[in-house]
Amino acid sequence: MQRLIQAVINAGHGHVFQWWHTLDDAGKQSLLQQISLIDIAYLSDLYRSRREKAPAPSLQEITPAAVIGLPKSEEESVLHLGARRIGEKALQAGEVAAFVVAGGQATRLGVDVPKGAMEITPVKRKPIFQTHAEKILALSKRHGRSIPFYIMTSESNDRPTREFFEKNRNFGLDPANIFYFCQGMMPALDFEGKLVLDAKDHIFTSPNGHGGSIFALQRSGALDDMKRRGIKYIFYFQVDNVLINLADPVFLGYHIEAGAEMSAKVTAKRDAEEKVGVICQVNGKTTVIEYSDLSDEQRYAKNPDGSLRFSAGSIAIHVLNVDFVERLNLKENTLPFHIAEKAIPHLSSEGKLVKPRKKNGLKFEMFVFDALSLAEKTVVMEVDRNEEFAPVKNAEGEDSPQTARDLMVRLYAKWLNDAGAPVPRDKQGNVLGAIEISPLFALDFEELRSKLPLSYEVRLPLYLGP
Ligand code: UD2
């Protein structure tokens, strides 16, 4: 014990023992236990190198990624159909797992429940987790094989997430097919590079980023569980996308057909300013460059036809091979840490918790898309954002519950229209009420069309459920 304390003092973090004399044995134990798990030397390296960021690649060094576009010809539709068949075969063989990352702290949303527990759907106000669960149920039924659901949480929302599922009887899923695990945590540092106490016996930590999922999958036993079940492909998505086309067989099919290790879906960026990472090629490797890391020259670069040169916006949907994730776990520190300045809660000199508004320290996060450049082969596929992307990030305005609901209504209205059931609209074309179609009624347009009676009359609000 003495040796550990001395090592921490020598490394310049003696202040974490500031309240030692006030702690009872349990408090001392828990502080020491936490410290013993922190790699202080590595943290110091990260701090020292915080300004040594490799220069962003120049306009000449990056090229747009090769993207499988939306089908525009008969020939491309046939290719899509071929991919769909391959993906469906993998689903029927039970080789696909659904994996949601839900460990974020939903800071921008400002809610005190896990983001997945937020009520979202336009008519029934079903929570986000239920929309995902219903898709998994519907897919399992369609393909005759259950799809196991892996849910990554973090320290602060693990228990509420499990309790939420239990309270709702797992939304009909078999609990034997749900696997929860916590992602890793990472200590923050203040601007002087010192660890921060947020209680007299506790050092402030925060989730280590969605990239931490690569290592948490292995550490938690989830990867072993997948191998036991014969899973080969992990369908990765973010909890906040309520229009996720879960386990999309076309995407899976292209990935499998190409022998890829990790793949990504993109949508054409709305405009140069949209805050999504851009997928491109850097030195021949598929890479995501975060919005903030693009130079203005790159952000606004145009093709001769006036379209954006770097328009492949990452929507954080991936397929990863189980083998690939295993390989990434063979070495330490495979993914880099990104450093962000944040407001870090800390103790005042009187030992009271202070929650500052201003940025006062550094948080460290790994990003899953950094694994793309480590894959031997990747597939990048474009999808229509109106059909597959409705993220819930903010309480109001852009990417909020309201915009997500509007996008759901718009999509369901289009399905109904295309299936021959006109939807009441105002002169501007806005739908005159709420529409909700449960995945248990129809997972997609084709299923809706096959189930809708002839001359179906749409009355709003409309809910189509099981
Ligand atoms: C992410 C992408 C952005 C774009 C966008 C699409 C990054 C840095 N940027 O933006 O390029 O694709 O998504 O919606 O990822 N999470 C964890 N653990 C963590 C941190 C996050 O599980 O430690 C989960 C979180 O619960 C959420 C997802 O990862 O489901 C995305 O996190 P975010 O909302 O912080 O990402 P954002 O909006 O910066």
Radius of gyration: 24 Å
Kindly state the percentage of residues in helix.
Answer: 25-40%
How much strand? Answer: 15-25%
Can you count the helices? Answer: 14
- Total strand count, please? 21
Biggest sheet record = 7 strands, mixed
Name the ligand types.
uridine-diphosphate-N-acetylgalactosamine
**CA distance, first residue to last residue:** 60 Å
Averaged pLDDT? 95
Q: What general outline do the C-alpha atoms trace?
A: globular
Strand order of the largest sheet: 4-3-2-10-14-11-19
Residue windows where pLDDT falls under 50 for at least 5 positions: none
Helix-and-strand structural type: alpha/beta
Written account of the structure:
- By secondary structure, this protein is α/β, with parallel strands linked by helices.
- The protein has 14 helices and 21 strands.
- The longest helix is centred in the N-terminal third of the chain and has 19 residues, at 74-92.
- The model has no long low-confidence stretch (mean pLDDT 95).
- The structure holds uridine-diphosphate-N-acetylgalactosamine (UD2).
- The site of uridine-diphosphate-N-acetylgalactosamine (UD2) has 24 residues, from β14.
- The site of uridine-diphosphate-N-acetylgalactosamine has 24 residues, from β14.
